[in-house]
Write a structure and sequence with these properties.
The chain is built from 17 helices and 13 strands. It has about 475 residues and is an alpha/beta fold. Strands 9-8-7-10-11-13-12 form a 7-stranded mixed β-sheet, with helices on both faces. The chain has a 4-stranded mixed β-sheet with strand order 3-5-4-6, sandwiched between helices. A two-stranded parallel sheet has the order 1-2.
Length: about 475
């Protein structure tokens, strides 16, 4: 460790605010060496020995918490064994100081041939390339390397992600990349030299490969609506898309076929779908229990209502289209809502409802194997308090005074698998989309993630 700190460039030493030496309850002399170095060094240092081993990721979490609590601007992860060159540390920090990104990863793969020339064993080189390519494919990124331990982050960027939820093991580095990527943070890479000496490697290669592959696979499945992500909450409102066979794509097509008028969007979220209707010439009123930032940019009017408040006491006028896109399952008592909406519908108007399909193979399988539980999104979204199949919703609508004019099946969110122009991933997307369409044609009850209903009053409402 001493010789690593001695190699920090003089220009960087003068600017560094603090050096944290975190001994993770190791069985070597890291703490003692750090204390001795602190007494003679010009660097501002904190030397700390963890009382118990926190793991590779757990020790990083401690350091990032320290940086956040002490209001630092940039934090750099530099291993103490000399595997990563301190001489190039400013290359990692400069892009962050310039404000052009939120994270910088040092990559040993950016310069052709450099990793092998620096002593990286062939089996590690091949494994690194294969894993990085798989991770890029699953996450929708184009990083040259996911496995470098030389990194720098803007402290406000890591504050914005739930890094505390990530693994305490070596797969922490993968999970924090996924978190930053999902949060829309900009990740930059810079080339770094490769050095392999006599340092001790504590990574079980096969176990590590399994862990990182599992993390990115869970991330991709979570984006598609299946299971939990190992990283953090996916940004739910980012899923308003208009791919032709998606829920919102079908709703947009059905509403666009009608003359523009007044539309009510119940559970409008951040207003993205409502904004799409406005571009079609509709006057849009939106309701939700929380007013999202900038929602007013997408709506003509917004009314803040809890899911079980009576709409008619807060909303006046008639609507040519009423949309409940993805929120009926959050109403504890949906029948009174559907009854009251009949009173707000203009003559000749229609109500459009999208509901998750509990008869889909995924919740069926989870229930059959005794693994039923809630996910962060999808059919088993933890916000859902009611579940529907096509048949149960038709019964509910009929009891509330509606008749079903049409019903269509929405599939998995294939648009969430847009992985760029890579040919292999494009083939995977096309194959998945084909299988999903074929499954819905064969059995919509089993393969439709959501059903989209167009409703009309069963009889003229009494005013």
């Amino acid at each position: 460790m001493r010789w690593v700190l001695d190699r920090l460039p003089p220009s960087f030493r003068r600017r560094v605010a603090h050096v944290i030496v975190a001994d993770d309850a190791s069985d070597d002399a890291t703490y003692d060496v750090g204390i001795a170095y602190q007494s003679t060094s010009d660097l501002p240092m904190t030397v700390y020995r963890q009382p118990v081993n926190l793991g590779y990721g757990g020790n990083q979490k401690w350091g990032y918490r320290w940086a956040i609590e002490h209001e630092l601007d940039v934090v750099v992860l530099l291993h103490g064994d000399g595997q990563y060159a301190p001489e190039v540390i400013e290359d990692l920090v400069t892009p962050l100081e310039a404000g052009i990104c939120d994270a910088v990863l040092g990559s040993r793969m950016m310069t052709r041939g450099a990793a092998r020339a620096g002593g990286m064993p062939m089996y590690k080189y091949i494994g690194n390339r294969i894993l990085s390519r798989f991770q890029n494919t699953m996450a929708g990124t184009s990083l040259s390397e996911w496995h470098s331990g030389y990194r720098a982050y803007r402290v406000d960027a890591i504050r914005d992600v739930a890094f505390e939820q990530s693994s305490d093991g070596f797969d922490f580095d993968t999970e924090i990349i996924l978190q930053l990527h999902e949060a829309g943070k900009l990740i930059h890479e810079v080339p770094i030299p490769t050095y392999y000496g006599d340092e001790i490697c504590r990574v079980n290669g096969m176990a590590y490969a399994w862990q990182v592959a599992r993390a990115v696979t869970r991330y991709r499945l979570h984006k598609l609506g299946f299971g939990e992500s190992a990283t953090e909450e996916i940004h739910l409102q980012s899923y308003v898309r208009t791919a032709p066979e998606s829920l919102y794509g079908q709703l947009q097509r059905m509403i666009a076929a009608r003359p523009a008028g007044r539309a009510l969007v119940v559970g409008c979220g951040d207003g993205q779908f409502a904004g799409m209707l406005r571009t079609l010439g509709w006057y849009v009123v939106g309701t939700d229990e929380t007013k999202h930032d900038n929602v007013g940019e997408h709506l003509d009017e917004f009314v803040e209502l809890s899911y079980d408040e009576h709409l008619s006491t807060h909303i006046s006028g008639e609507f040519d289209a009423i949309v409940i896109a993805d929120s009926l399952d959050q109403f504890r008592s949906p029948e009174p809502l559907l009854r009251s909406l009949r009173e707000s519908l203009a003559p000749g108007g229609a109500c459009f409802v999208g509901t998750p399909n509990f008869a889909h193979w995924y919740p069926r399988l989870r229930t059959a194997v005794g693994r039923f539980g809630y996910d962060r999104r999808g059919v088993l979204d933890r916000r859902h308090v009611r579940f529907f199949t096509r048949r149960s919703f038709v019964r509910l609508a009929s009891s509330a005074g509606w008749r079903v004019g049409s019903c269509s099946a929405a599939g998995i969110r294939v648009e969430q698998m847009h992985w760029g122009e890579n040919l292999a991933s494009s083939r995977a997307v096309r194959a998945l989309a084909w299988a999903d369409r074929a499954g819905r044609r064969r059995s919509s009850n089993l393969f439709a993630l959501q059903f989209v209903f167009e409703l009309a009053p069963d009889a003229p409402s009494t005013r």
